[in-house]
Amino acid sequence: MQAKNPKDSRTILTDLVLPSETNPLNNLFGGELLARMDRAASIAARRHSRRIVVTASVNHVAFNKAIPLGSVVTVEAAVSRAFKSSMEIFIDVWVEDRESGKRSRANEAIYTFVAVDETGTPVSVPELTPETKLETERYEAALRRKQLSLVLAGKMKPKDATELKALFE
Ligand SMILES: CC(C)(COP(=O)(O)OP(=O)(O)OC[C@H]1O[C@@H](n2cnc3c(N)ncnc32)[C@H](O)[C@@H]1OP(=O)(O)O)[C@@H](O)C(=O)NCCC(=O)NCCS
């Protein structure tokens, strides 16, 4: 399988915040943002693998900034590293200022998707080659995030999480 670049999977979803999608403070409801991010990440994983993909884990979400009713929100997702059957997807969330049109970063998240066949069995995906400095940083940190996710899910023993342990040595 030919290696791909993050730009091959880059997925951009832009949408408004409507009244039915807000919390009592009239800001975007967290679950609605999670769903938008899951959709964008799922499309990115599918573009990279060209297979059926399922969400395996949500490794990190930071709701750094509230997003008010009426905002224009852009969710940008791209594969940051591919392993055997799993892919890490990095998601950046931007909000557009109504008057200036300037975008500011509101949130970020990291999801893991797995490519599967029709029976739900994991299948191999193409490798990912990062191109920019940011893509390389995300690529290099992805292995320890995978190990952390597997340790927390009880699927890896902490002693085997070599990359993760190296952080504390
Ligand atoms: C995701 C799923 C396919 C993994 O199945 P599994 O039996 O754990 O399969 P494996 O052990 O072979 O793991 C497959 C890959 O997923 C990765 N993986 C599994 N659980 C993970 C987790 N919690 N975090 C990160 N990666 C994980 C494994 O490391 C492996 O990656 P690799 O092949 O790139 O090395 C399976 O758990 C599943 O189908 N879950 C339901 C998915 C779903 O329905 N999602 C929608 C949410 S409702």
Describe the structure.
With about 170 residues, the chain is an alpha+beta fold. It has a single domain, classed as Roll (Thiol Ester Dehydrase, Chain A), CATH 3.10.129.10. The chain is built from four helices and five strands. It has helices at about 5-10, 30-50, 135-150, 160-165, and strands spanning about 10-15, 50-65, 70-80, 85-95, 105-115. Strands 1-3-4-5-2 form a five-stranded antiparallel beta sheet. A hairpin with a 3-residue loop joins β3 (about 70-80) and β4. The N and C termini lie far apart (about 35 Å). The model has no long low-confidence stretch (mean pLDDT about 95). The site of coenzyme A has 18 residues, from β2, β5 and α3.
CATH H level, superfamily name: Hotdog Thioesterase
Annotation field: number of helices: 4
The first-to-last residue Cα distance is 36 Å
Provide the domain count: 1
Record the strand order, biggest sheet: 1-3-4-5-2
What fraction, in percent, of the residue positions are helical?
25-40%
CATH-defined topology: Thiol Ester Dehydrase, Chain A
Shape: globular
Amount of beta strand: 25-35%
Protein name: Acyl-CoA hydrolase
Domain HotDog ACOT-type: 7-119
Family: Belongs to the acyl coenzyme A hydrolase family.
InterPro entries: Cytosol_ACT, HOTDOG_ACOT, HotDog_dom_sf, Thioestr_dom
